[in-house]
Every structure is written in C-alpha cells, then in structure tokens.
C-alpha cells in the first residue's frame, strides 16, 4: 500500500479515526514507500503468530528495513496455495512451521520453491545437515512420544513397543487421528523395525494396519489437535498413548502426573518454506538465512511455544530443564526415529485412503 | 408480502395537496431495493455453488468419476449414512421437544412464564456452537460432572463412556437445533385457536382424538417446516461432531474437510459437497410440496 493511496483512503473515511488506524495498521506499522519489499508469512494463528512476529519478524524488519506481514492460515497451507495458484494470484512468500507431510507433498506438487544452492551451502554452515532440505529448513520440531497417566494404570508403558502391547499393558489408548505416517511408523516399530532404520524403511501396510486394529480396539479416543491431545489425558478419555512431547509436559505441569518416554518415539520436524511463484523469493530466502543465523531469537521463539529449533547454539540460550523437554536435546534426539516421507509421497493416495477407511470406515 | 398488508390508508381518499401513503412500491423502485441483496446473493451464493457443481463434474478425471470415487470409499459412505441417520434422530427429538416447548410458550398465559420460556429458548440460540459443544464435552467427560455425580450416587462403578460417542453428538446437536424447531413451530402453535379443542370435546371426541384430528392437521405445516429446516441444517454440521464425536463418528462435513485440508483431493470433496447439497435440496423441496412454500417461508422467517 502506498502513502498516496493510504492518505486518499483516509480522506474518504474522514472522521472515522478507527478506520484510519486499521488502514495504517495494514502497512505493518512502518512508513511504506513504493520500493519497500513486503513479505507475507502464512502462520498458524496465535500463539504462533505472535511468537513469530515478536522474536523473528520484528527484529528482521528492524535490521533489513523490509516489511513483514503475517496472515493466519492454520492447517490450510497446501489447500490455500493450490487455490492461489489456480487463481494465478500467489499472495504468500513464506510458510511458518509447515508440517512435514504438507511440506513434502507441497514440494512434490510444485507449490514450494526449491532452495538455491548458494543458500543451501551458507545454511549448512550454521545448521546440522538433516535440518537443511531441498525445500526449506526444519523448524518447530517436536517429538511423538509415549505418554501415560500414572495414577490411571498399574504399569505405564516405557516405550513404543510396550504401548502397542495391549495385553501386557492394559488401559485405554489414544493417538493422533490426522497423521497416518506417525501411526504407521510407530506400528512398524512395535512390529520390530528398529527406529534407526525408519527413515529408509518401506512400511508394510498390511502388517502395520493389523497392529493398528489391535490398538484401535483399545482406543478411548483419537485426538486431532494439541488441545484435544491434552484433553483426552486430563479428562480421562485415555490412559496412555501417543502424544506431542510439549503437550505431554504441559499436562504434567497442569497437575496430572504423567509418565513420559522418548524411547523409540518419532522426530517430527516442521519447516520454513518459500512459496513457489512468490515475487520476493530472494528476500524470503534472506529471511530464512536470517533466522538460521540468529540462535538467540530462535531460542526465544522455541521456548515461548515449547518447540525445538534445529541450531545447536540455540541451546546456549535455553535453561536446562526446558531444554531437556525438547526434541533436539541430544539425549532425546538419539532415541527418536525419522519418518520416511519420500516413501509417503510416493504412496500417498493408498496410505491416505486406507487410513481413512481404517479410522472412519 | 404486499397483499397481506391491510390497505386501510390507501382506501381513504387522498386529501388535496397531500399524497396518501401507500404500501405499494412500483416495480422499478422495488427492483432497485432488491438489487444490492440480489447482487450479493449472486456473487457469494449462486456463483460459488454453480462453480462447485461444475468442479465436481469437470475436475480430476471429470464426468462422473468423482462421484464414483465417493461411492467407492467405505469411509465416505459410512459417514454419509451416519450423517443422515443421526440427523433424522436429531430432527425427531427436536420435533417432539421443540413442539412441546412451542406449545407451552403459546399456551402460557402469565407474561413472566412466557418471558422465562423465551429466555431459556433464546439464550442457547445466541451462544456460539463451539461454546455449547465444549460445555457438553465438560459434562460428558470420563471425569466430568455427569460421571462423577453418577459415581458419587453409587449408580455406576466405572465411569460411563459418553464423550466421543454418537449419543454425545446427538445430544449436542439437538441442544443446538432445538431453538430453530421452536421458532419454526411457534407461529402455527400460537395461531391455533384452543377453543377448537373444546368444540371437538363437546362434539364427542376423546382428548386424544381432538389432538390427532383437530390440532395435528392445523399445526402440521409448522411441524413439517421445522422438520425440514432442522434436518437440512443438521446434515451440514461440522464442529459438534468433531468435538463430541471424535474421529470415529464423522459427519460428511468432516470427511469433506479431510479431503480438502489433509488429502488435498478437491475434486472428491466437491462431489461429496454436491451430493450433500442435493440431499438437502430434495428434503426442502419435498417439504415445500407437502405444506406449500408459504408455511416453510413462515418457518424460516421466524
């Protein structure tokens, strides 16, 4: 929005101070001139959006003089990008914390930009190798871990295999309903696939679904969001199950004693991505490089939301207790397996169809 | 509309120099008045629906393939049956409970009682559907109010599984839809002349006979209108089944959401939506044939 058009709009709405205020707010606060680069980040809504604004976007704006706007589009990245492409009007430049399946599928469908080689080599100077992919860097990382309400059962399962052993460890189960890959991968771990091999392992769908059928019979409820994840444990709908790592610790802090085990869990990265077809690709990659080189900001972001960030130096700014609850904390990281998302992208339709039939059929 | 308004003022001769007020609006001013609404409706209702229907037939492999994909999926068929079956139960409950409520409001003679009844009907109507659903989730939870009361009274040892069941969804939906049913039935109930029941009794009818043969035919349009509205809205429910039903009792809207946001299968989502829309239209159309559009519109207006 230019100064000229803004002042005209303000005149039109003369007398309405509130409307003028809102219009001024559109520009992102600073004075906007024609040549100012304005980046648009799609994010998940609060508390994500405010954490990204406070710890990443605002300091970045101050340093570069760019404008950054954040729009809320929780869980709608790929669907929205498809329709923006259809309408030939790509509105976003960056995606904040895209879920791994969405990022892989989005890249496969040409919705996410490929990382330029020079950016890649510079990022590798500050980030570990597995944090830099062809289409972005890992971010807002959490673990899928085994959680159990201590008072509810006699013995809590201490790892994934025990959680799937419904005879050995009786009690009602829960898991995430929206991610087939998490459930199938963990079912394979329960069937004896070592977590270190998961990232290249091709899931045996028949075997995995058979394991999940047993798990389902013991299921009290499936959860589909972080809130529900906590609710099923706090309300007693489930006594044990797969949980987001951060949410499990929050349940414990809220007063429900929890047994939390990282053993044979899953490492679940989100991603920062640049949108294919964005008008400011270079500046968008600049933003990603900026956050990769500002571990203190990244740490503050992660601590606020309870997620882990990929750079080792970030842990210098996080206290030991908080750090020990994050997925990238070395002791936790080494117990977690990686999901084979390349396989998922290839077998996407079959996996999703069977998952939907399993859950909803 | 215009014909229902008494034309008292225009019947009076206009005095010189002053034009009498007339409730009739000329064709052109009337069209101009309707134009903004018509444009909005065209742009935001008609166009998206036409586009959706076209998409369902042209996107993906086109033709009927998207519909074939819908019918080949056990998950979608299951949720379609779930949606229709549970909506029918909700409709029946709303008619019985809402009918009694509407009748009670219409017959209440003390203003205080009437006001209290209206308040109890309208307050839930004004609450957000998320708030209402969460309230039920709190009540139905394993360690929720209901279960702890039952356990404290010694009526049950283990907590009953109430949340994330069809039962919870039906209760939550009925609670949400009840005001619609009451508002749709109230006009015919309050317009019913209670003296007719006395007359029927004097003429030798039994109590039940009077209700069935006199009352029911006269309030029938309201009941059918209420049923059609409640059913048509119910089959589109999304939040209540998600919050109270969990993953295993999905409604069509949940499945359509899956297709759009998780599986990115827009063509199949379009086909499912068109099916659901057709279903709602058939129900409304049938109801209109039964009672005439006027009664249904009366219900909708309320």
TrEMBL record, chain A:
Sorted UniProt keywords: Periplasm, Signal, Transport
GO molecular function: thiamine binding; thiamine pyrophosphate binding
SUPFAM superfamilies for the chain: Periplasmic binding protein-like II
Subcellular location as annotated: Periplasm
Domain of life of the native organism: Bacteria
GO BP of this protein: thiamine transport
Position of the signal peptide: 1-24
InterPro entries: SBP
Main location, first listed in the record: periplasm
Record GO cellular component, one term: outer membrane-bounded periplasmic space
Name listed for the protein in its UniProt record: ABC transporter substrate-binding protein
From TrEMBL, chain B:
Record-annotated membrane-spanning stretches: 28-50, 84-104, 116-141, 161-183, 223-244, 269-291
Keywords annotated in UniProt: Cell membrane, Membrane, Transmembrane, Transmembrane helix, Transport
Predominant localisation class: membrane
Domain ABC transmembrane type-1, residue spans: 80-287
Pfam families: BPD_transp_1
Any single GO BP term: transmembrane transport
Topology class, membrane: Multi-pass membrane protein
PROSITE patterns recorded: ABC_TM1
Subcellular location per the Swiss-Prot or TrEMBL entry: Cell membrane
Listed InterPro entries: MetI-like, MetI-like_sf
Any one Gene Ontology cellular component term annotated for this protein: plasma membrane
Family that this chain belongs to: Belongs to the binding-protein-dependent transport system permease family. CysTW subfamily.
Name of the protein: ABC transporter permease
Record organism: Sediminivirga luteola
């Amino acid at each position: 929005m230019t100064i000229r058009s803004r002042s005209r709009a303000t005149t039109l709405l003369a007398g309405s101070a509130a409307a003028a205020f809102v219009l001024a707010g559109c520009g992102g606060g600073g004075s906007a001139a024609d040549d100012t680069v304005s980046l648009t980040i799609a994010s998940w809504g609060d508390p994500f959006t405010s954490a990204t604004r406070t710890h990443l976007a605002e300091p970045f704006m101050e340093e570069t003089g760019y404008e950054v706007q954040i729009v809320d589009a929780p869980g709608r990245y790929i669907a929205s990008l498809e329709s923006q492409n259809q309408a030939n009007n790509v509105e976003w430049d960056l995606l904040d914390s895209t879920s791994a399946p969405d990022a892989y599928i989005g890249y496969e469908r040409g919705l996410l930009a490929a990382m330029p080689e020079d950016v890649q080599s510079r990022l590798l100077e500050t980030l570990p190798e597995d944090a830099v992919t062809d289409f972005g860097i890992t971010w807002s990382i959490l673990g899928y871990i085994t959680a159990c309400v201590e008072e509810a059962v006699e013995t809590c399962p201490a790892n994934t295999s025990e959680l799937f052993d419904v005879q050995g460890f009786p009690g009602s189960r829960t898991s995430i309903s929206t991610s087939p890959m998490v459930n199938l991968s963990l079912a394979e771990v329960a069937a004896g696939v070592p977590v270190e091999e998961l990232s290249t392992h091709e899931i045996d769908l028949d075997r995995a679904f058979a394991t999940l059928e047993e798990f389902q019979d013991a299921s009290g409820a499936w959860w589909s969001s972080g809130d529900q994840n906590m609710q099923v444990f706090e309300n007693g709908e489930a006594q044990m199950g797969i949980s987001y790592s951060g949410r499990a610790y929050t349940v414990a802090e809220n007063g429900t004693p929890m047994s939390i085990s990282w053993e044979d869990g899953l490492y679940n990265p989100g991603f920062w991505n640049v949108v294919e077809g964005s008008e400011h690709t270079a500046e968008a990659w600049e933003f990603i490089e900026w956050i990769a080189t500002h571990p203190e900001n990244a740490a503050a972001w992660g601590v606020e939301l309870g997620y882990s960030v990929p750079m080792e130096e970030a842990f210098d700014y996080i206290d030991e207790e908080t750090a020990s609850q994050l997925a990238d904390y070395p002791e936790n990281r080494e117990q977690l397996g990686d999901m084979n998302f390349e396989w998922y992208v290839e077998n996407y339709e079959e996996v999703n169809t069977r998952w939907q039939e399993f859950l909803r059929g | 509309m215009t014909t229902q308004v008494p034309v008292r003022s225009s019947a009076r001769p206009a005095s010189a120099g002053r034009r009498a007020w007339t409730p009739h609006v000329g064709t052109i001013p009337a069209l101009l008045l309707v134009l903004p609404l018509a444009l909005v409706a065209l742009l935001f209702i008609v166009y998206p629906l036409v586009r959706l229907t076209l998409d369902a037939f042209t996107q993906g492999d086109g033709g009927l393939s998207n519909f074939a994909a819908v019918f080949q999926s056990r998950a979608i068929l299951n949720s379609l049956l779930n949606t229709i079956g549970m909506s029918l139960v909700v409709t029946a409950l709303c008619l019985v409970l809402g009918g009694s409520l509407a009748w009670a409001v219409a017959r209440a003679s003390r203003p205080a009682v009437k006001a209290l009844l209206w308040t109890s009907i309208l307050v839930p109507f004004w609450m957000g559907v998320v708030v209402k659903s969460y309230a039920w989730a709190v009540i139905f939870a394993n360690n929720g109010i209901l279960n702890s009361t039952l356990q404290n009274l010694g009526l049950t040892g283990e907590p009953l599984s109430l949340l994330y069941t069809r039962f919870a969804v039906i209760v939550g939906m009925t609670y949400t839809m009840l005001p619609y049913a009451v508002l749709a039935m109230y006009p015919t109930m309050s317009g019913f002349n209670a003296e007719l029941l006395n007359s029927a009794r004097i003429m030798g009818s039994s109590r039940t006979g009077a209700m069935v043969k006199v009352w029911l035919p006269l309030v029938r349009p309201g009941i059918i209108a209420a049923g059609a509205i409640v059913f048509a809205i119910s089959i589109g429910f999304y939040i209540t089944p998600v919050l109270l039903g969990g993953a295993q009792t999905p409604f069509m809207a949940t499945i359509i959401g899956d297709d759009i946001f998780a599986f990115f299968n827009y063509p199949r989502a379009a086909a499912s939506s068109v099916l659901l829309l057709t279903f709602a239209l058939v129900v409304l159309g049938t109801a209109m044939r039964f009672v005439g559009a006027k009664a249904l519109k009366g219900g909708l207006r309320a």
